[in-house]
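Recap slide: Rab-GAP TBC domain-containing protein, sequence and predicted structure.
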Amino acid sequence: MESYQPEYDKNGLLSDTFWRTPHRAVPGRPCQTVQRTEVMSGSSYQQFQASVNDAWDLGDDDIISGIAETKISKAISQTAALNVINSHRNSSKNVNKNDVKHGSESVKPKVEAVEVKKNEIRKAGGAGSSGLLRHYPGRPRPVRLSALTSREESSESKLERFQQLHDSAVIDLDELKQLSWSGIPVKARAVTWRLLAGYLPANAERRVETLERKRADYKHLVRQYYDAERDDDTYRQIHIDIPRMSPLVALFQQITVQVMFERILYIWAIRHPASGYVQGINDLVTPFFMVFLQEAASGQELDNFPLDKLSEEQRDVIEADSFWCLSKFLDSIQDNYIFAQLGIQYKVNQLKELIRRIDLPLHEHLQTHGVDYLQFSFRWMNNLLTREIPLPCTIRLWDTYLAESDGFATFQLYVCAAFLLHWRERLMLEKDFQGLMILLQNVPTQNWTDSNISMLVAEAYRLKFAFADAPNHLHNAGKSDR
């Protein structure tokens, strides 16, 4: 692989593009030039964006070293930090227009800014947080057993209904989907996910035989592809991404866990040559891994759970089932990860047209300030919101995704629309490109729970059926970018 050197303009700043590697033809990295506008000055958001280190958007170590050398002034860093702090502070209370700070106001003194930031981090971290480490938006945070347990489990009747369905000789999948759509109890989740993903047969007589055969098949794939001579480029990219995908969760820093993820992703990439490995797919393994781990380590806290405590057979089951369920899950969105990720670009245009029809003032507000939908919603589509919401919320959201009878690909578009509309009032208060992008790329969801996800999918359901009789706008949106 050729060494990449960041391109600087005559002022010594990184080139004015949204993507960090604009001249390389990397799948999933369409070149998107941000047009200069009055609200996007070279001394504000451009420098802030150039200093942001987001692991999902880095291709190799050379790029990391280039970013490390990027300089940013104290005034700019304080302004950016205060915008994020104010965004998170307002997440737990109604926005007060009188408290909104405009660019003309002076920046707080350095000492006060540091104290505010510390207080915000302590509040967001709560018990079990790792010192003053920042809670990156959507990155998995310390995982508590109670966080993965649905609030609806206080009603034992729902769990009993799942158990009755699981015990059926032939499971009625339509009934199982209908029951799962509003959330699955943790004790029933692992089996239900295998069924909904199409990995576990509905016929009870075939389940044991199928699981044994598929798990044996996965072991054969490991010997055939991973233990043999590997493709250096594919393996290198996966090997770089895995250690930094979940920096705040001790579980994912264990070598045993990282090797399991490497095998899953490498074999998936080799078996899908049309796409290969695309950054972001590693995040999609995490929900399956956590659900099957919780099944194997029932009643245990998972944040610091040493995976070596499990038997080799238990670890093999978690790894094989995660691989096959991931493969089934991605089958319906395969075009999201082929060259140039055309499926995602198509859906971004659909989202743009959908918001234009639903909320024209919000759409025009984003357009007026130079915000392109690709700049924030590409990650939403690529990672299925796993970077935007906490891991327990992702698992709850995937209960609904897996239960969508016509596949979740279309429904996820409406979830993204509902997610954007959720922040409408706060977005309308932002008066420049910098403020809008900081909010859209750092949405304050650190305190979200199952109830927030239930409201989100309910709104997405309403939007889907509001446009069910007039679907042409979605097809037209994919052909033209208005």
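The chain has a mean pLDDT of 76.
The radius of gyration is 23 Å.
(End of recap.)
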